[in-house]
Amino acid sequence: MTQTSYSHLDTFPNPQQEVDYTIRMTIPEFTCLCPKTGQPDFATFELEYVPDRLCVELKSLKLYMGSFRDRGAFHEAITNEIAADLAKLTQPRFLRLTGKFNVRGGIYTTIVATRQQAGWNAPTPVSLP
Predict the structure, then answer these.
(1) Collapsing DSSP states into helix, strand and coil, what is residue 27?
(2) Which of 36, 45, 86, 92 is the right S-S partner for 49, CB 3.0 to 4.6 Å?
């Protein structure tokens, strides 16, 4: 495993580097603070990525996501920061991070951040009957 400066994020070698496959994770207990009011914000993150050489280790991801609990951040900033950290760490072929934030001021916010390796093309989807 490789440890980084990203608050305990670890990786392990992709066991199937020769093929494209998608890893999907749901992270339902994310919290941070509203930078204006200091009140807690709650979100569910959905992470999807096609790994290249490295995969993110789950327990370290849990600890990393928990490290935002006492930080004030706008939804857009925090989603893009997490996507950038994960992309820098694992250098995936493709990464999509969706942050679904609970209501604030009567508005639900969803932020979708993507990262993609130059030259990588997604496989053609298969539609089965």
Answers:
(1) strand
(2) 92
